[in-house]
Write a structure and sequence with these properties.
Layout (H helix, E strand, L loop, with lengths): L7 E8 L2 E8 L4 E6 L9 H5 L2 H9 L2 H22 L11 E2 L9 E3 L9 E5 L6 E8 L9 E3 L1
Antiparallel strand pairs: 1-2, 2-8, 3-7, 4-5, 6-7
């Protein structure tokens, strides 16, 4: 008899005082959490990780929204690339995600299989000052969030 837990997949992320573990059955999963913090390269980093379309969306945002938008984009992209198992060895500019304050988390463009429309990308609600996302190929039936603040 095989155990139903043998097909368990997991992913882990942590940053400055918070950790998230994501679990899924029979499919890969990716999770990322970041502390929203000021840093000098906020204007330079988007050119390295955003697609042309994302960069335009980012530049159209009011300057006061850009810092949080950058971290939303970063966590969403990182969750997707971690779920692939390739991480940042792949070109993250090809992984387009939503990140504007008024948009739900969604994978817009993905140059691989399965196509973007077959992925679930969700923002994870965590304490203020942090952003997090989880990504899986296919649909999420249930999302339970258990975080650890340390």
């Amino acid at each position: 008899m095989t155990s139903p837990l043998t097909d368990l997949q997991f992913n882990l992320s942590h940053t400055h005082g918070i950790a998230l573990i994501a679990l899924a059955r029979a499919r890969p999963i990716g999770v990322d959490v970041e502390e929203v913090r000021p840093f000098a390269e906020v204007e330079n980093l988007p050119r390295r990780i955003f697609s042309i379309r994302e960069l335009q969306t980012f530049r159209d945002l009011p300057p006061s929204d850009r810092q949080a938008a950058f971290f939303r984009a970063w966590t969403r992209k990182e969750a997707v690339v971690k779920a692939t198992g390739l991480g940042f060895s792949m070109n993250v500019q090809e992984v387009e995600v939503t990140f504007s304050p008024d948009e739900d988390a969604r994978l817009l463009e993905w140059p691989a299989t399965p196509p973007a429309r077959e992925w679930t990308l969700r923002e994870v609600e965590i304490p203020s000052g942090y952003v997090a996302a989880v990504a899986v190929p296919g649909q999420i039936r249930e999302l339970l969030v258990k975080g650890s603040v340390f």
